Amino acid sequence: MSGTPTAGPKPTSSCWHPTFHPSRSTNRSKRSTPALPVIMIEPARKRLETRDWRLAHAGNHSLVSSLQSLGLYLILGIATFLRFYRLDGSSLWSDEGNTWALLSRDFAQIARDAAADIHPPGYYWLLKVWTAATGRDAWGMRSFSALAGVLLVLLVYQTFVALYQGPQRSGAASKAQNHKSFALLAAWLAALNPFLVYYSQEARMYMLLALAGASLVWATLMLINQFDSPPSTKGFVVPASLYCLSAVTGLWTHYSFPILLVAAVLGYGFAIMRHPQFTIHNSQFIIRTIQPFLLLNLLALLFFLPWLPTAIDRVQAWPKGGVEIDWADALRLTLQTLLFGPIRTTPAPVWPWLLGGALLPLAGLWAVRRRRGSLVVLLWLLAPIGLMLGLGLYSEAFLKFLLITAPAWCIVTAAMPLLLSSLQPLVSALLALFALTLALASLPGYYTDPAVRDNYAGVARFIQVVGDPTDLVILDAPGQQEVWRYYDPGVPVLALPQQRPPDPPQTLATLAQAVADHRHIYALFWATDEADPDQLVEGWLSQHLFKGLESWQGNLRFVMYTTPVPLEWQPMSPPVHFGEAIALVGSEQPASPQVAPGEVAPLTLRWSALQAIPTRYRVTVQLLDSRNQVIAQRDSEPAGGAAPTGGWQPGGQYGDRHGLFIPFGTPPGAYRMIVALYDPVTGQRLPTPEGDALTIGEISVLSRTQPVPLDIVPIQQRLGQRIGPVMLAGYDLYRKGFAHAPATPLREGDLVHVTLYWQAPDPLPSDWPDDLMLQLQLGEETILAPLAGGLYPSGGWRPGELVRGEFDLRFDGTSRRPLLMVEKESIRLSALPR
Description:
The protein has four domains: 60-448, no CATH class; 456-555; 568-701, Immunoglobulin-like, CATH 2.60.40; 715-828, Immunoglobulin-like (Sandwich). α5 packs parallel to α8 (206-225). By secondary structure, the chain is of the alpha+beta class. The chain is globular, with a radius of gyration of 36 Å.
């Protein structure tokens, strides 16, 4: 062996080689030793770097997955809070009353009663089981829908994930690497959606219907995702079972559910036809995909078969409802419902929200167009809308059917950022902010508005406080009987008309006999277009009784009538002219008119037509204090609309009865009553010898013998805050003359009317002042006055008494929040509408 080291063979350029310097080797006997470890170390280092990268990537993936799970739990927690918060805060309405009544019956009777209705019995059966644990009160019944609403949010997330789990159709580049992030966005939209929140707090079947629909779509998408998987019973059982269960639940819940089954079948078939393996000759693929799916649908139909004849009969026999409208109005109603539902507190202006509600899901549909389940989602979104258009169901009563399409709207809207690769985080954040802003603008008003649903609870409470067992409640239409029984204040009830269509002679005879022995009549008018289209009940009551308090409580109209009392005829000699065509011949009032707050002051006017009258004028009867502030007011056409001036004949005389309800808290004292006629279109009053109104008498308002509970007093802004030695129960704040529309914007120079509701402490302190003063400031305008405006000094107040104060301020445009001060303590009132 030579002692001189020799170099090894030179590696060719085509071979991988390590960095190797043979001249550094000095020991011939170990000439191959340096090469072996060097050659092995370099690949090992590469493998270690790859393993470290994979470990780091796995760690990052695990962190992202944990954050996504945490986000989902957070969203579900928010959804739970929104759906269970103040769950029994609003009144049950008529349909919920029917639900309550059905739960007291056995399962067989529920089925028999449902067979006469337009809903199958499935929801009622499930709710009966549920309320066995939760109770049959409002919270117990509504909690079932609230839970379904929370589960629906989870299904929205899972459905979005399923939409992007399977392969997309050929030709599409993947844009959904973080599809779970967008699934979270879809769940966020569903959690905050006011439409979904509203019906999650209602004891009806619509949230269960939406849940069954979403579950059906999720199962369909999972079945579509099985196309590329090897045939496996294990992978098929879960989605197949879910599909069948969802279909059966939906069919037994509502008769509109078949439209979603059609959407699922068409979407599934479309996914099969677009699959690469679908060919005429590939019978194995066709059998493997179509046959099981058809069997699932047949199985669902088999479970519904016992009820199918009843379902067909009820759908064919039920009268067609709703109205036919053009596509623009249908689009507006659809978008407004999907964004806000029936909630009345919406942001202004509303058109930017509607525009976003239309464009965002359109862009989202384009983003998901290449997913194999895209047609399922598209039909899920559009088929219910098409059904409503085709059947003419675009009326307020049927807009809730859009609930089954709301989850699809959330999903396709959340997919919109997928179109913007570089801006996805920013656009997603803006979309989440869009949903949050929408919820903040709508939901607070929803939770605090007692009339967000038909307020039977408030009406019953009012009658309980003001009424008497000798009074009478009239329900027009009879469908209100069950919900009224839930809140029964202990006053006799009569439901009219007693049949459809009404029998006029029988209805009027029953009505006349029923009211003869009662002092006050409380009428609840609901859905009268269907039950009493000719207004037989209201027309008779308006002509024969004195119509006093009238208020809308949601879609329920509550009217308080007073039966005739001995009145004194006071002729006008000569008759007083109102313009050139109408004269007031005389009036009838009590000889010594005295009335307490919460009661009705009766008045009969007798008009004469001097010539033909082309205009339908309205009569306004007002009670004014010494400062000409309007304390009470009633406006209507003569005889409650039964004798409009446009139909008067020259020389004819027409009786016109009015009841003036004295608001709670009106200070005791003498008040002036005036009458005027005005054109409701222009607001222009007809001239009289006294100006634009005629004084027809004076009324003495007495104090109530018992304090009135604050919960029955209509107050725009409830406060219950102590200021100085007195409590401010709340206030009304609006542009003067617009009490009926308090959100009317103000212009500089307009008068602002403020009504303050004070409540005296109980007991009165020993140092209670004789004449407590307030300071009210708006911009540069300041008022210093007694709390009740000088009509009723605080020294005369009784413990716990409610007292109103009426004030006007000029709006100078510098400030929109009035400042109220009493004995150096202040409260800033809410901002005036812009």
